[in-house]
């Protein structure tokens, strides 16, 4: 992971890839609803509200932000 996306602290694309790889989030989940807790990340299901899972927190991911022409 570090070879392909070496700078998650400085590069937004690397940060997104790192967050998805360390949490197991799919693209729809990453752009969907999730929250960072003290010791875990709670990922809410995209098809059913009851489908949620907790993933141990390895590092704090940044939520995606939308801009006029790009995303981060």
Main sheet makeup: 3 strands, antiparallel
Helical residue percent band: 10-25%
Give the helices and strands as they follow along the chain. Answer: HHEEE
Strand order of the largest sheet: 1-2-3
Strand content: 15-25%
Structural class: alpha+beta
Number of helical elements? 2
Average pLDDT, all residues? 79
Low-confidence stretches: none
Q: Based on DSSP secondary structure assignment, what is the total number of beta strands?
A: 3
What Rg is obtained from the alpha carbons, in whole angstroms?
Answer: 12 Å
Question: Describe it for me?
Answer:
With 72 residues, the protein is α+β, with helices and mostly antiparallel strands. The protein has a domain at 12-56. Helix content is 22%, strand content 18%. It has two helices and three strands. It has helices at 12-23, 27-30, and strands at 34-36, 40-44, 52-56. It has a three-stranded antiparallel β-sheet, with no helix packed on it. It is globular and about 35 Å long. It starts with 11 loop residues before the first helix and ends in a 16-residue tail after the last strand.
């Amino acid at each position: 992971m570090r070879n392909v996306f070496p700078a998650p602290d400085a590069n937004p694309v690397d940060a997104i890839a790192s967050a998805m790889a360390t949490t197991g989030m799919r693209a729809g989940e990453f752009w969907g609803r999730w929250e960072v807790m003290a010791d875990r990340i709670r990922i809410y299901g995209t098809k059913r509200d009851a489908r949620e899972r907790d993933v141990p927190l390895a590092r704090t991911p940044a939520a995606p932000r939308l801009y006029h022409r790009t995303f981060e």
